[in-house]
């Protein structure tokens, strides 16, 4: 009887193993990548090109797409200057036998099966996976990989996706974000990070970037026609443009330093320490005063104050580039009955303290009439 039980157990595990093998067969393949470029810097990222929708007999086509996108990438000013900060690999395995476009879940499964990370929000991951999809259409960056379609090779698309949406996206590191500067006024109402965007401003002024840009700003940014961008032609405006503007360049180099743990330059994630004193909310006189005292190991870049009048949209009011900032605001000049204020503090590594941090929103202030 015991012998038969052992046979039954053995058959049970054999059947389970076969079922498991069938279910997981689609996820099993060897991952072999050819290195196309070797960076010489100690602090660098890996760019890994992966095919999707290329049949086994179209390997040459995939290789051409990779080479064409890389050629454009190295022509961009930022990536040309920092080419030594990147290793580049091309996955050459013929795993895409059916030639189908893989779903996002399938691509993510492939990455997770063969690699130890996908970049997402993780600062510990120093690999950026780039899917080249064998079809026409839009290009995009998800939380886990960059997706390029066939037209990407004709423009500076890869430089756009990497500089604006991967390196310039500082949200994972307590910092502002870069954003496509395409004008689309209907989308304006959907924007709710205007005040932490590195390359958009709600005033016709370069005060936000005066250390980087000397020319007047240009209208049309952040999907809003009444917002302004720092430069007329930049890769953040369109992937047809080759170079990053000075603001985009600084965002990219800060993001690169933080992702590669480059302690010699902007490798710092701590929000500034901030203390605000001054006029208390409630009934007040005509003038409101704020004293913003702050410190940070990388220094303070700027302090910003925004105001909402009678519950309308917050708009910028004042900028200061000192470690101890004093703001005296004449409420009569703002023409309203109730006022709220938001304070934002940026350090030298563009980490910021501000909404929704407690204490960054002040109000309501109701002046006596």
Feature tags:
MetalloPept_cat_dom_sf; disordered N terminus; Immunoglobulin-like; alpha+beta; 369 residues; elongated; 6-stranded mixed sheet; metallopeptidase activity
Question: What report would you give on this structure?
Answer:
- This protein has 369 residues and is of the alpha+beta class.
- The protein has helices at residues 2-24, 59-75, 77-81, 104-114, 157-167, 246-259; strands at residues 33-37, 45-52, 86-91, 127-133, 140-141, 146-148, 218-221, 224-229, 273-278, 282-284, 287-295, 300-309, 315-320, 324-330, 339-347, 352-353, 361-367.
- It has six helices and 17 strands.
- The chain has a six-stranded mixed β-sheet with strand order 1-3-2-4-6-5, covered by helices on one side. Strands 10, 12, 13, 15, 16 and 17 form a six-stranded mixed β-sheet that branches.
- Residues 1-5 and 12-29 have low confidence and may be disordered.
Short description:
The protein is of the alpha+beta class. The protein has helices at residues 2-24, 59-75, 77-81, 104-114, 157-167, 246-259, and strands at residues 33-37, 45-52, 86-91, 127-133, 140-141, 146-148, 218-221, 224-229, 273-278, 282-284, 287-295, 300-309, 315-320, 324-330, 339-347, 352-353, 361-367.
Overall, the morphology is elongated
Main β sheet profile: 6 strands, mixed
| Mean pLDDT over the residues | 87
Radius of gyration equals 26 Å
Instruction: Tell me roughly what share of residues is in helical segments.
Output: 10-25%
Distance between the terminal alpha carbons, to the nearest Å?
Answer: 97 Å
Q: What is the number of helical segments per DSSP (H or I, 4+ residues)?
A: 6
In spatial order, strands of the major sheet run 1-3-2-4-6-5
Order of helical and strand elements = HEEHHEHEEEHEEHEEEEEEEEE
Give the quaternary arrangement of the chains. Answer: single chain
CATH fold-level label of the domain at 274-365: Immunoglobulin-like
- Total number of strands: 17
Residue stretches low in confidence (pLDDT < 50, at least 5 long) are: 1-5, 12-29
CATH superfamily of the domain at 274-365: Immunoglobulins
CATH top-level class of the domain at 274-365:
Mainly Beta
Instruction: Please identify the structural class as seen in this structure.
Output: alpha+beta
InterPro entries: MetalloPept_cat_dom_sf
GO molecular function: metallopeptidase activity
